[in-house]
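I had to read the description of the data format several times before I understood it. For illustration, here is how one protein appears when written out as sequence plus structure tokens:
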Amino acid sequence: MTIRDLLQEELRKRGVTVVPEFSVSTPTGVLKPDILLKNGAPYVVETKLGAETKLLEAMVKPYNCFKNRKTHRHSGRNKLAE
């Protein structure tokens, strides 16, 4: 069991809707964050451990994803909020 699995399990226990391993199309390409959380609003989670742990990079990817989604909506419909 990974940290991501433990996090998902705990959030589900607390009533948060968890969508694991989803993808989002953006004008700059497809992003594949680890988890989408839905609890009043959508939240993107990207887990990083070991050699992958670079705090700034881990924060920038989800931020850019949402920044691009807000400014470049394809059909005026926010697919993340569904």
